[in-house]
Design a protein that fits this description.
The complex is a heterodimer of chains A (373) and B (368).
Chain A lengths: L22 H6 L2 H5 L10 H15 L3 H20 L1 H4 L2 H26 L7 H12 L2 H4 L2 H26 L4 H20 L4 E2 L3 H4 L13 H19 L1 H11 L1 H6 L4 H27 L1 E2 L7 H11 L11 H20 L4 H28 L1
Antiparallel strand pairs in A: 1-2
Chain B lengths: L19 H25 L29 E6 L6 H16 L3 E6 L5 H14 L3 E4 L8 H9 L4 E4 L11 E4 L2 H15 L6 E7 L5 H14 L5 E8 L4 H14 L5 E4 L2 H14 L5 E6 L2 H9 L4 E6 L4 H13 L15 E3 L4 E3 L3 H4 L6
Helix pairs in contact in B: 2-10, 3-4, 5-6, 7-8
Classes of the chains: A mainly alpha (373), B alpha/beta (368).
Chain lengths: 373, 368
């Protein structure tokens, strides 16, 4: 995110104005606004400026960058409305899209934290697999809903803790540490399940996915996702912890010199990601009514792609949660459109590749405009 | 975080006035610590999947008679798949169980793998050990052809299970399921059920699209449905043989087609997810036919209280039959009631439709 809208100024000195297009201030002010670190003459006084910046981030995502993504999403909705108007625009389809986005959506929230903090987590899919398998063994199921929920979250947190310790205190490269976790978590889930699909027999868990459990027509899974987004957004943008995260991702050395406990901060990144994986695992158990070691297949790629498309810098230090959420929605909507139009796998793969490129190009286009303006 | 970290209010600590934050942190640490220990204890007890597992070694309806008489001792090498799917897992179990039925058979099992390179190494090992016959379910039929040829050239007969080699020279016997026939069976079952329904709409939830077997199943299904002019295959989506993909694709299919008369799902494992999607959408206006024949689905067919009314078998017993045939080949004996003096070179299994009426016959060979 831009430094003017809540991000720390620690990463500022190392980057020239050219390398930091600040979308929020770019949208609100001018290049002059950027050079003065956001306290521009055209925007309201600093206090209000922060609020309006945050507001812009909440509504339009991170300004222009997310506006591009909203445009892509609207374009997809338009395509859906033209190609299959009756099915696509129905509320039940909206519910399906949101429900399907919710599981990977929660994982993506955690991934956004990790990437903003300058890390990467390749193990999310494997953690989801392990947590779903562990939480659906017959022994765990005998504890009912509480047991399953607790177990899913505990396994997620445990894996996240291990990742975090390896990266922060073991000084391992995140790519390698989480790659190792990816391999062993998948292996352990295969070991525990023996390759079998573990069908959940606990009705209180299954019924969370059924129509009867909807609150005002909204499935509980979607509510959980929204709650995670809101909580994540608040932590990222409204707490010292969040500011430190941007600082850490932008320039770890500067963050350390500024008195931030870099190692502990790094550890928490993977804990957050692990926690999100644990929550997502529980949601996946509700959704599929089972645990399987193939669960969460390629989640790491889906989550990273959504985060990057959402405008977060892969190298860290800058990013928006709302952008990531939009990224997830774009992917899910594409998949939904394909199914509604009965397109087959080969066409789907070609088209989704093309759409990703188009989405990024549209984004870059809008980003470029803000830089020029 | 240990017990000693806990500040004890009653006893004066060394630091006469412990600062409030430190104290709070200490208590929090203690709470976290005990929670972690509790979590660990509970978690450790949660990996167990043992609850009186019914024996998978169900008595296979093998041909009794002269073939079951004990013959010369035979060593069979078995190279199976990595058990990451219920059906594949059952294949390995069936092979082991069948071998145990014969006092004259020694089974040498190598680690199951999905990696063709690793598997060809295993076949080489089996050849060097000088087993009498090799039973192999290849990680990839085409890629493993050379291994089959090598074994045959070394004078070791190869029983090729299911995924067929490129050339008949690479095996002595091929035994496997009929994917095209599976589609045909499913198509005919649905066709007969919907015979009197005008403009019937059928939906297909396929397996992994870039597998040849999926294409064959879909082809058989389409060909069979073509015999019924009143039925139209309105939508088809490919899942990935996983519950997660099954749920996702089924949810979308249900959105795409508001009124469905029948669904064919290629695979009962992904069907677990599909079933949830159907329940979540609150739909029940159609009948559903599964594929492969899992225990879970057969139980439902028997209970007859869901949309699942049938499943098309892809028999896991082929692994047991392969072991039985391998034994007979090694002992140069014939196959049961057949009049030939040798075991045939090719056996294609029938894809039976399991319905409420006949489910009891098939329950013993369902995979979990």
């Amino acid at each position: 995110m831009s430094t003017s809208a809540g991000g720390p100024s620690l990463d500022k000195p190392r980057r020239g104005p050219e390398s930091t297009p600040t979308p929020a201030s770019g949208a609100a002010g001018t290049a002059a606004a950027r050079s003065t670190g956001g306290a521009s003459t055209t925007t309201p006084p600093t206090g209000d400026g922060r609020r309006s910046g945050a507001w812009a981030r909440l509504t339009g995502g991170g300004g222009v960058r997310n506006l591009g993504l909203v445009g892509v999403l609207l374009l997809l909705v338009l395509v859906g409305a033209i190609t299959s108007p009756d099915q696509f625009l129905s509320t039940s389809n909206l519910v399906v899209i949101l429900t399907q986005a919710s599981v990977i959506g929660v994982v993506t929230v955690g991934m956004t934290f990790v990437i903003i903090g300058g890390g990467i987590d390749l193990s999310v899919g494997a953690i989801v697999a392990l947590a779903t398998v562990w939480a659906t063994t017959l022994a765990t199921q005998s504890y009912g809903l509480g047991g399953i929920l607790f177990c899913a979250i505990a396994v997620g947190l445990g894996c996240g803790l291990l990742n975090g310790v390896l990266v922060a205190y073991g000084r391992m490269v995140p790519f390698i540490a989480t790659l190792a976790m990816m391999a062993s978590a998948r292996g352990l889930s295969l070991q525990i399940s023996g390759g079998l699909t573990q069908v959940v027999q606990v009705d209180s868990v299954l019924s969370l996915g059924y129509r009867e459990s909807r609150i005002l027509g909204i499935p509980p899974l979607v509510i959980i996702w929204v709650a995670v987004i809101v909580l994540g957004w608040l932590v990222l943008n409204r707490t010292t912890y969040g500011r430190r995260l941007f600082a850490l991702g932008g320039n770890p050395e500067a963050a350390r010199l500024a008195g931030i406990d870099v190692r502990r901060q790094r550890l928490t990144l993977y804990l957050v990601s692990g926690l999100c994986c644990g929550i997502a695992s529980f949601m996946l158990i509700v959704l599929t009514g089972s645990g399987q070691n193939t669960n969460g297949n390629l989640y790491e790629l889906d989550a990273i792609a959504a985060v990057i498309i959402g405008g977060t810098l892969l190298t860290g230090g800058r990013g928006t949660l709302i952008g990531s959420v939009l990224g997830v929605l774009v992917f899910t909507t594409i998949s939904n459109l394909f199914a509604l139009n009965n397109l087959q796998s080969a066409v789907q793969d070609i088209a989704s590749g093309a759409i990703i490129v188009i989405a990024v190009l549209i984004q870059r286009q809008s980003g470029g405009q803000s830089r020029a303006g | 975080m240990s017990l000693s970290d806990r500040p004890t209010p009653d006893l004066p600590s060394l630091d006469a006035t412990p600062s409030r934050p430190a104290r709070a942190a200490g208590r929090r640490g203690f709470l976290l610590g005990s929670a972690a220990i509790g979590a660990g204890a509970l978690l450790a007890g949660c990996t167990s999947n043992e609850v009186g597992t019914d024996d998978a070694a169900a008595p296979a309806p093998a041909a009794e008679g002269s073939t079951s008489a004990t013959g010369a001792p035979v060593t069979i090498g078995f190279a199976g798949p990595q058990a990451d799917h219920g059906w594949l897992n059952a294949i390995n179990e069936q092979a082991r169980a069948e071998a145990e039925r014969y006092p004259d058979v020694t089974l040498e099992v190598v680690e199951g793998t999905n990696d063709a390179a690793a598997q060809s190494g295993q076949i080489e090992t089996l050849i060097n050990r000088g087993v009498d016959v090799i039973v192999i379910l290849p990680a990839d039929g085409k890629a493993m052809t050379q291994s089959g040829l090598a074994a045959m050239q070394a004078g070791i007969p190869v029983v090729n299970l299911d995924r067929i080699f490129d050339t008949p020279r690479a095996y002595r016997l091929w035994i496997g399921g009929d994917n095209y026939g599976m589609g045909v069976s499913a198509g005919h079952f649905i066709g007969e059920r919907l015979r009197d329904r005008p403009e019937a709409r059928v939906v297909e939830l396929a397996g992994i699209d870039n597998l040849e077997l999926t294409q064959q199943r879909s082809q058989g299904f389409a060909d069979a449905l073509a015999e019924y002019p009143n039925i139209e295959l309105v939508a088809r989506q490919a899942a990935e043989f996983t519950v997660q993909s099954g749920q996702e694709k089924m949810a979308q299919l249900l959105q795409a087609v508001p009124q469905i008369d029948a669904v064919w799902n290629h695979d009962d494992d992904q069907g677990v997810g599909a079933e949830q999607a159907i329940r979540q959408a609150g739909r029940d206006e159609f009948i559903m036919v599964g594929g492969a024949g899992s225990r879970h689905v057969m139980d439902q067919i028997k209970a007859d209280n869901t949309v699942i009314k049938a499943t098309v078998l892809y028999p896991v017993t082929m692994a047991a039959s392969a072991i039985a045939c391998a034994r007979l080949i090694a002992q140069s004996r014939a196959l049961g009631d057949l009049r030939e003096t040798e075991v045939p070179t090719s056996i294609t299994l029938h894809s039976a439709v399991v319905t409420k009426e006949n489910v009891d016959r098939y329950l013993p060979i369902a995979f979990t």
